[in-house]
Amino acid sequence: MAMRLGDATLELEVWEGAFGASFRAAVEKGGIHDVTSHNAVTREDWWHPMWTKKACPGLPDWQALNACAAKFATPETGDKGRFLGGPVDWLKHDQKKVDALGMNFVGVNAGSAAALWAEIAAAQTDKTPLVLFNWTPNFAEAVWPGEFVSFPKWVEGYDKDPAVGTIPDKTYDCGNPANGYLKIAAWDGMKDKWPAAYGTLQKVTFTNAQIAEMAKLVDIDGMEPEDAATAWIDANEAVWKPWTE
Questions:
Q1: What are phi and psi of 187, to 5 degrees?
Q2: How far is it, in rounded angstroms, from Cα 135 to Cα 235?
Q3: How far is CA 12 from CA 64, 157, 167, 189, in A?
Q4: Which residues are registered as beta bridge partners of 146?
Q5: First vs last Cα of the chain: how many Å apart?
Q6: Residue 16, Cβ neighbours under 10 Å: how many?
Q7: Residue 9 is part of which domain span?
Q8: What's the total number of domains in the chain?
Q9: Per-residue pLDDT for the chain (245 aa), expressed as one digit of tens each?
Q10: DSSP collapsed to 3 states, 99-110
């Protein structure tokens, strides 16, 4: 609403997985439009740090993960493996995926994103096997190498129609989109009111690695966002200079 009215001018991160449906609806209502897409692709799904493959060599295949479920068991989950999901209000339906695919796992929700990062850092000390919710791009990939679990390929409608997907009578029986877009959107009036700025905006694009490194400056190195932006600009003139020409 704010962008449609011109109170906000642009949005640099429209994630397909989180905002795809609402973004399409907003564009159809008018007042905002799709400017361009970043080179970065988005993904939100089960993920493990690379050291976990020592305990479960068949990763990232989901069936291999399921065969290794006991390696992820905790006192909280008994003889089942633990999958650490995001906060409940993120609504990621991880337990529905577990149930649909018949996995020997229990979904446990972390209280915050910070709790997810703390879990990875703690597991790194003695290389404890770990599988949890993660997404890209974010700073974590610049700190902990890892990979997403390979579930059956996502199909449109898998969350609503049991006939869609790999198991005929189940919903949520596949992974999330593996190559979601990361778009830039703008108020329709921007191109006329600030044509030079709009021309620059049309050229802006970041990769996953660039976004991860920028986020790391704040989330790990402790810089203020303004200082991190200045540091990145100073170090990456060859990247952004062509956008302004």
A1: -65, 140
A2: 26
A3: 37, 27, 37, 16
A4: 49
A5: 32
A6: 21
A7: 1-41+181-205
A8: 3
A9: 678 777 889 999 999 888 888 899 999 999 999 999 999 999 999 999 999 999 999 999 999 999 999 999 999 999 999 999 999 989 888 999 999 999 999 999 999 999 999 999 999 999 999 999 999 999 999 999 999 999 999 888 888 888 888 888 889 999 988 899 999 999 999 999 999 999 999 999 999 999 999 999 998 899 999 999 999 999 999 999 999 98
A10: HHHCCCEEEEEC
User: Same structural domain for residues 84 and 67?
Assistant: yes
Structure tokens that stand for 219 in this block: 């989330």
Spatial neighbors of 127 by CB under 8 A, at least 6 apart, are: 51, 54
User: Which amino acid would we find at residue 55?
Assistant: A
DSSP, residue by residue, 66-81: HHTGGGGB-TTTTTSE
CA triple 185-189-190, angle to 5 deg? 60
User: Which residue is listed with tokens 């999330």?
Assistant: 176
CA–CA distance, 7 with 171 (Å, rounded to integer): 40
Longest C-alpha distance within the chain, in Å? Answer: 62
Are both 48 and 116 inside the same structural domain?
Answer: yes
Instruction: Say whether both 30 and 113 belong to one domain.
Output: no
What is the distance between the alpha carbons of residues 31 and 188, in angstroms, rounded to a whole number?
5
